[in-house]
Structure to design on (408 residues):
């Protein structure tokens, strides 16, 4: 059972376990008659062979409040795309599978490259961006939700609780972020949130002082959660990073575009587990090492936009401040785990903090060395301004792919 604490920055909608999920879903079915709800699923082909996605589809098949599912499929050849079409055909909702590596969508990508506005880096951010573009082109949704395809503990009521705040016409929320405890197999997970983001935000506030953006990020119980929902009208103006900074980047865009009163977070699960990334101490381009660097750079860029001036000395001081705060938090998390019969490895947690501290400086050096970097994918408003026909042609390409490779 959740608490009833409100942080005063963004509304916190709790899960008190006092109402039934069936009642919530019945209301959503009613809302969805006039406020259509689409779900975006960014997926690697490998996730179709994993343990999580089959259960996700079984649960979604019972989610009568979802009108449309948009699946972005990465790293798939023609045979794998045909397999994906059969795999997702169990969904009763209208659904489209974007073959991001197929010839038609690669031709769309080539047009964007000619205009200088194509996503430069493959990955989840690029996949989500194309799915958002398709939702805009399709013009059949009022609410768009997103979650990953590797959630091992997935239940459809997680999605119901995620979309409810923006689907309910009596609520004023335009954006909702999901949160949950990262507990599985008797231990605390969520290392990047616990050991990087939380202490880094504290350290940044110690050095910068009062800052609305940092206070806003600290208000989120789980800022790196991959689950969020928003009103579809927001999609044309969202600029997102193509790297691991996606979740921080989306929160930054919401902060830029919306009043805090239009933003909420909701508790969507008591337990949550998904695929875990390795720390990757030996290879800074992989795993949590790469993730920590990308997240730090995303924070620096946003703070610079707000007028914060950075230097090498600042980042060295930030490293020292962060390390002290994070090591203190390791002890706090250890105590919390012990009291709840859970396990944390204090040695491994401190190793993670040391790696993240080094990456905070590396991210700062990369930021200072390349101030001309354009980290965000251009928003869809700019795409439409550059090529008025592209969204229509994009929609036609996806429609043709889905028709030509439909299961027989």
């Amino acid at each position: 059972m959740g608490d009833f604490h409100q942080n005063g920055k963004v509304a916190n909608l709790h899960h008190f376990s006092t109402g039934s999920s069936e009642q919530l879903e019945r209301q959503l079915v009613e809302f969805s008659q006039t406020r259509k709800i689409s779900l975006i699923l960014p997926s690697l082909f490998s996730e179709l062979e994993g343990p999580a996605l089959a259960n996700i589809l079984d649960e979604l098949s019972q989610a009568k409040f979802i009108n449309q599912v948009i699946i972005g499929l990465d790293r798939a050849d023609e045979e794998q795309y045909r397999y994906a079409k059969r795999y997702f055909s169990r969904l009763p909702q209208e659904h489209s599978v974007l073959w991001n590596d197929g010839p038609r969508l690669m031709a769309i990508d080539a047009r964007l490259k000619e205009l200088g506005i194509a996503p430069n880096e493959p990955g989840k951010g690029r996949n989500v961006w194309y799915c958002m573009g398709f939702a805009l082109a399709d013009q059949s949704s009022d609410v768009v939700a997103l979650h990953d395809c590797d959630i091992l503990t997935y239940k459809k009521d997680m999605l119901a609780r995620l979309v409810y705040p923006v689907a309910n016409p009596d609520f004023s929320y335009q954006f909702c972020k999901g949160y949950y405890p990262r507990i599985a197999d008797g231990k605390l997970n969520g290392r990047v949130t616990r050991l990087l983001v939380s202490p880094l935000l504290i350290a940044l506030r110690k050095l910068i002082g009062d800052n609305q953006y940092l206070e806003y990020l600290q208000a989120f119980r789980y800022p790196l959660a991959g689950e969020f929902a928003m009103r579809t009208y927001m999609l044309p103006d969202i600029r997102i990073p193509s790297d691991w900074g996606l979740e921080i980047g989306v929160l930054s865009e919401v902060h830029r575009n919306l009043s805090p009163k239009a933003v909420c977070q909701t508790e969507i699960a008591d337990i949550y587990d998904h695929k875990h990334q390795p720390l990757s101490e030996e290879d800074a381009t992989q795993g949590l090492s790469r993730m920590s660097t990308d997240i730090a750079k995303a924070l620096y860029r946003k703070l610079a936009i707000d007028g914060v001036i950075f230097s090498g000395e600042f980042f060295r001081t930030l490293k020292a401040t962060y390390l002290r705060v994070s090591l203190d938090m390791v002890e706090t998390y250890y105590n919390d785990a012990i009291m709840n019969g859970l396990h944390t490895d204090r040695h491994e947690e401190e190793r993670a903090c040391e790696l993240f501290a080094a990456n905070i400086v590396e991210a700062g050096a990369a930021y200072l060395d390349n101030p001309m970097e354009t980290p965000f994918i251009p928003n869809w408003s700019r795409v439409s301004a550059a090529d008025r026909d592209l969204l229509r042609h994009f929609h036609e390409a996806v429609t043709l792919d889905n028709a030509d490779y439909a299961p027989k």
About this structure: Residues 312-339 form the longest helix (28 residues). The chain has a mean pLDDT of 93.
